[in-house]
Amino acid sequence: MRKTFILFALLTLITIKANAQVFKGTSLTEISTPNTPNEIQVKASKGLNLGNNVVIQKGDIIKGKVTDVVAPQKYHKNATFTFIPTEYTDSKGTVHKIEKEIKATYRQKMKPDFEHSEFGIGGSSDSMFVFSPSYIKNAKKILNGETREVWDDYQNRNTPWGKGEEISIKTNETIYFNFPDVE
Prior knowledge:
By secondary structure, the protein is α+β, with helices and mostly antiparallel strands. 20% of the residues lie in helices and 34% in strands.
């Protein structure tokens, strides 16, 4: 009975349709969760069909509201927000209103963490020298008597209860959103 249930659950998960279109664009507005703007503009890097005869082409500029801003939380839950497009400007300069409210959630792109990365020299674990930029930075902080900041940084990065990360997107930086599928 248990094996049948597990098999049924796996088959259900496999057959569920993905319920999002991934949108890639270039931010024309600086976005950060501590100081979130009310409206942002994004230049489309690829086409997107939003339904109701709203088809965004590559290069179109989408303008919209920012809502549902959630600050980073414990247990490494990163900040997030929702983007609601209100209008877009096509390549000819014509502004088109978007009547239907479509909520797109910010999709975090995984970035390599070079600051906390390490590389080693040597063959055995006894003779191995490990270099990490964060090790040098933390050693300087300890020498300057800033041990509390070192502990806070370590706790946020390396413990299960650490705080998530803020969103910080500069102008002309790539941004991703999950738009709902067109029905």
